[in-house]
Amino acid sequence: MDNLIAESTALFIPTGVYPFPGGGERAWKAIHGPATIPLPQLGWKSLGILELTALPTIREENWVPAVRQADALLVWGGDVLYLTYWLRQSGLADLLPSLSDTVYVGVSAGSIAVTPYNCDAEFDLEFVPDGSDMAHGADRALGLVNFTLYPHLNHPDMEDTELSNIQKWASGIPVPTYAIDDNTAIKVVDGVVDVISEGDWRLINP
């Protein structure tokens, strides 16, 4: 794996973290560390920043080729609603289905964003600016996979991640829900789902 990363190029997307207090500092730490999940520090052949909020003001020919050439998109966590909003506004959401040779690596919100439903919608609404249209459809994400995701299962600092709460939320979702802890990942290749885990996870079917 280390050799594969050393031969691969990546773009890091920090956008989702900005709505939170200290968002700029959080983005800096995600890029430069220390970070709990040090995605940018894994030894990539090259690493760039893809800031979604900037893309609508940039000519597509000046950023789309870089996305198409990247081996991996590293999508950081944060506010799912904000991240999905800017994935759409930037045009990247429309581009993603055509990136058949690109690995999408999502952390927390970065993973939830590609599922059909936003499990953090109620929390995310607290960060929507007054008068913004961002709140419309807050409970829906991009729907690029046919299951949804609830991360941080049983995290000691997140009361809403208790399994009973996740099961309650999942009972209203018409697609399978994967509840995963921070030692679990989900790999999807050509629609085939594999759970990779050294921790705890649950599949909750509708």
In words, what does this structure look like?
The longest helix is centred in the middle third of the chain and has 11 residues, at 80-90. The chain is of the alpha/beta class and 206 residues long. 33% of the residues are buried. Helix content is 25%, strand content 19%. It has a four-stranded parallel sheet with strand order 2-1-3-4. A three-stranded mixed sheet has the order 5-6-9, with helices on one face. It is globular, with a radius of gyration of 16 Å. It is built from eight helices and nine strands.
Oligomer: single chain
Instruction: Provide the spatial order of strands within the biggest beta sheet.
Output: 2-1-3-4
How confident overall, as mean pLDDT?
94
User: Uncertain segments of ≥5 residues (pLDDT<50)?
Assistant: none
**Proportion of residues in helical segments:** 25-40%
Sheet-strand content, in percent, reads: 15-25%
Number of strands: 9
Rg on CA atoms, Å: 16 Å
What's the shape?
globular
SSE string: HEHEHEHHEHHEHEEEE
Separation of termini?
Answer: 35 Å
**Protein structure class:** alpha/beta
Helix segment tally:
8
The major beta sheet can be summarized as: 4 strands, parallel
Give the SSE map.
Blueprint: H1 2-6, E1 9-13, H2 23-32, E2 46-49, H3 64-69, E3 72-75, H4 80-90, H5 92-95, E4 103-106, H6 109-112, H7 121-124, E5 148-150, H8 163-170, E6 177-180, E7 184-189, E8 192-197, E9 201-204
Parallel strand pairs: 1-2, 1-3, 3-4, 5-6
Antiparallel strand pairs: 6-9, 7-8
